Amino acid sequence: MSRENADSIAVQALGFIAADRPLLDRFLAVTGINVAELRAAAATPGFLAGVLDFVLAHEPTLMAFAADQSLDPARVAAAREALADSFGVPSR
Predict the structure, then answer these.
(1) How far separated are the first and last CA of the chain, in Å rounded?
(2) pLDDT (tens digit, 9 = 90+) per residue, 73-82?
(3) Which pTM value belongs to this model?
């Protein structure tokens, strides 16, 4: 998968998270960032891989996101790996 495709999936995942307040609250609690820091954090290397880690860590979230975006859940995992390769983020 290309980095551009992986970035697109990760940005879609971030939008999916942001659109669901309970999910967003959980994401913020897990990452330790707050809403005001979210935009700046999204521009940092590795952040989008972390977004996909969050989605992949909870199967119901993964399945809901994949269904919402008409994606095979395996593409979400492939996007995470592509981002890891691009930024030197350790694989899961």
Answers:
(1) 17
(2) 999 999 999 9
(3) 0.88
